[in-house]
Amino acid sequence: MARGILTIFLLQLSWTVHLVTAIQRKDIFPYGTPNGDFILQNGDDETSKVLALKRPLYFYEAQFNELYVATNGIISAQDLPMEKQYVDDGFPTDFPVIAPFLSDIDTSKGKGAIYYRVTESPTLLNRVAHEVHRGFPDARFTPTHAIIATWENVAAYEEIARDAGQSDRLNTFQAVVAYDENNSYAIFLYPEDGLQFFGTRPKESYNVEIELPARVGFSRGEVAFLIFSRVEGPYYSVTNNEQSLKNLYQVGNTGVPGVWLFHIGSRYSFQNVVPASTGGALATPPPRGLETYESTTAEYPEAEYTAPFEEEEELEEGDYSPITDPDFHSPAIPEFHVNSHPDRGALPGHARLQPYGGDLPLTSNPQYRDHDNIDTPTLVSGPSGPAEYPDREVQPQAEAPQAVPRPEHTALEVFPYTREENSPRLESSPPLAPGGGHIVDVVEEENFETGETKRTCAVFQQQCSQNAYCTDYPAGFCCHCRTGFYGNGWQCLPDGAPHRVNGKVSGTVIVGSTPVYLNSVDLHAYIVVSDGRAYTAISEVPENVGWALMPVAPIGEIFGWLFAMELPSGQAGFKITGAEFTRHAEVTFYPGNQKLTIVQTAQGLNSDNYMTVDTRLHGNVPFIAAGSTVQVEPYKDTYQYYPSVVTSASVREFTVVSAERGSETFTFQLRQNITYRDCHHGPRTGPETLQLTTERVFVMYVRDENILRYAITNKISSVGEETSEPVLVNPCYAGTHDCDTTAQCLPGEGQQYLCQCATGYRGDGRNCYGEGYKENLTRENGLSQCGPHTQCVNLPGTHSCHCQAGYEFGFDGRTCLDIDECRSQPCHPQATCTNTLGSFQCQCQPTFQGDGFQCFPSDGETDCEHHRDSVQTTSPEGYPIVGAFVPQCDEHGQYRDLQCHGSTGHCWCVDNRGQERAGTRKAPGAGQPNCNEPEVLPPTQRPDTVCERWRASLVDHYGGKPEPQHYLPQCDREGQFNPVQCYGDSSYCWCVDRDGREVAGTRSHDVVKPACIPTVAPPTMHPLPRPDMTPPPSGTFLLYAQGQQIGALPLKGTHMDLERSSTLLALHGSIVVGIDYDCREGKVYWTDLAGRTINRAKMEPGAEPETLINTGLTSPEGLAVDVQRRAMFWVDSTPDKIERANLDGSGRKTIFDTDLVNPRAIIVDSSTGTLYWTDWNREAPKIESSSVDGHNRKVLVKDGIGLPNALTFDTVMRHVCWADAGTKRLECIASDGTGRRVIHSNLNYPFSMVFYSNHFYFTDWRRDGVIALNRDNSQFTDEYIPDQRSHLYGVTVATTHCL
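RESULT FIELD:
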């Protein structure tokens, strides 16, 4: 009996303890001037200055762009009338009102203060999102802005003439209005003891003792009716008497007393305010008879920031669900083990004491559910607001009012899922290991009867990356990338090494009104990790959708974020997500409001250590005319980081240039969520927000190849870290270093830096070449990361473990386990299958003969017996034959495993067919082989190539230990010769052909390696054109740059010979911009924006390109050749400088690196040694000149120009001429700045220009062609449009002799 009483007492105590306490003042949203608040002027009837909203807010169904905060406990969407017109009246009001406590409040003479602000703080928006998702579990809401108004210690208005002294009753309350582009919510907060008066006396009460209760609720105000009339709009009252006002801090509708939540507006159909549906009560003893019921407080996950109730127990981690798209089948998300044990901190059937507030993922859907809400005693709170405690039996809580349905795609979505026992869950935010590496965990399983930990490093460390180590923590184990690698512990990549991504693109894209289907077309991306450049190509894209998808660079943007160049406080995405994540992005185009959904699922690293990402597209995109070009402006995007989720939202601008419509500028909004798995067992540090700066975006659709290309350059840093002021930035961060693409740039003091080859590469940092990880590992550390029955395969900068034949990877993806081939019944039905390690055997049953794969009834003799009996051991004359091998058969007539030759003494093992097992033969005196050992089959591999055999022979020649100065052929992963060969670690290098033979004239002893083309072209969907010269017939012709090729256009006099146009050089993967011709040696020179190089080639059949400069270039554009001085000049538009070098690339130096903003074109008058260039500065464009040695710099033109793209020199008139894409004019001026005249005033979009024989020839981006203009009559004389439509860049003239 006593035991039963004790049990009841404990249950009562548990019921009391586990109820929620009221919200405290310290728990409301932060306010005050330290938080950026404005303070409303003290007084009895004051209104704030207008709060202009960056985005409109929906109140009921209407949009409002302004808000006002008033003394009398209200927020309004329009300027308020005098208080006597509303303060003593009930609802509805004549104007829009949000009323947390509408009454006659007075802050005169220092009686309290009123604070207000508009905020975009991710932490606060995150907290609001959590509150909304708790109160509206089905809401899709991602707040972008919030208005916080706080009335602190404010008093009721009191007449001065009253005999009694001033009341000391003061009120404190707060209102938070948050919204996104579709919905608005309001939170009213009333802290404990925050309401000490509940009404005010009317000012004109004429000494009648009357007090009007405050009003709490919402009023739409008057709305238009018919044409000239207005009627009362809808309203919603939360309170209706003094007791309901007192209940404001005693109960709530979110599960926390004193916290009230309402859905107050939507861009879609909205009738009236909808309250949240979760009850909350103070910790008051329960009604009699209900002691054993659970509390009314739903559980929700632990917050990231310090909880207000620090003395309470730590809460369990929350559940974070993967992102899906309602229009698609859910993409595959990796499943992870969950800790499914119950909460031992609460009694069964009872919720735990919960703190109010929290910092949780800012998502658009609920992730937190109330569990076990059965027969829950609550306060009966109807739609009208808080009610009083019932006197007797507590009725079940009424079903919550349903929110007005909203269409899908109103916001980005993180959809919940019903989590059953042992279902997967995603954990919390990305931590850093003690040494700075990134970690990820697997949740620990516990046996609660024995307390035994099942998931520790000792058992499960193989779930980590092969380039990671494992650390045990009290709650589980975590994986950390080793030094020299980066990632999240599950997947680790070598520091600094370039990375590749492969995948498929599928889905339906509607262009205009035409649906286009993408059926698993290939996506390939190449990322230069060292400086954040990401190149993405999608092949086999139909033409009508190819043009339309050009603006959708966000398809490739994910790779830019994953591998962005890290500024000091930045963190690339791969360190957080690893290679397993799901990205859900929504692109909304304006003004057409078309929406395209992008779902990208990363499925880990493949056997080549490359990431696999599948992309699904669904939705509408605007139509873009064929042949159009798209320019995307640089942008900055803020990424917000939460447990297992990264989000961002931004608006981008792009310009479409087409022949039909000219230049048009549009925008689109991008909203995205990236979900991933992470670790919460180890140290928990990481970013809250980071800024991704995209400096350059290049997009193009190649019609002839049906390839869509995106090129993006990214940096990641803390928000606002970069500055627009002209400061010296370390070359590592500016991207102006000369480290190899397979090297890391390590910043030092000031402008100093160090180049360090990536893990698995060798060299001085400026020249790195791959060795393969296995070779380094075994030589330097004496160990291998591959386990038994594996083959270690070298990869660029790393390695891969492959199972030997007869083995397959186990569940961990790293341990090779024997394949039981007998399960698939490979043998004949009349044969017995015996599994062996790495293999199997088939043996025909007795009375059958054959090899086990084919068995047939025997004629009395087995194969072995027949073999034995057929061996001729004697000659026809009857003499014994020496040397004949006679097989030995067992008692069943089968071959014995061990066979020996009686004449030679050799012994070996055989299989069931009598065939010798390789490697088992032993000579006389060496003992007999053990035929019971499993047969180890060598892995299937290709034969060694010439390069590999040559390398192996030289290693033997050097005694197995070649010195650094020794030459060893460098072979690629396919065994072919690397195009660049060097002596050991030196910079003494040369080019070789595919057979390893040196290419004459390529030897160099310089830090810059010779530019060599690959010896064997990589496999592609289509054969690539050879990068060698195919010059046109002799004569004069124009040379023009068109992306990945240089074209030739012969001239007949001054007319372009369109029929004989041809491709001079096909340069796959390049973006050729600047171009010029050396008439003395007959060589063409060009800049490559994609490769960041300067190159040349001889105008002879079969001549191959030669790279002259391949370091220290960022955006090389204009190029000019000084024929007389044998020099070349170029502009680099990212570091904003002008450089020169000899024509062989030597003698490089900077001429100008100051007072330049965006240099574009450059020319040289070789006869006078004068240099001219344009600066494409939108604020102050100019054309300048100087001597070729950098002296006598001066501004030639600065007025009346806009975008001076093209520049040339009229050798006849001795004039400098330019074509302006801004003013649309072609003008000329004398070199001394006199005689300026307009040649033509109605150009389209010129880019580059050359003068020849009284004609100007310029490339035009509107027409995507070359246009000829007569200087003397200002008439267009000719036009050439290439068959392959894409932008044409530089143009020059090649003559048979120097002019």
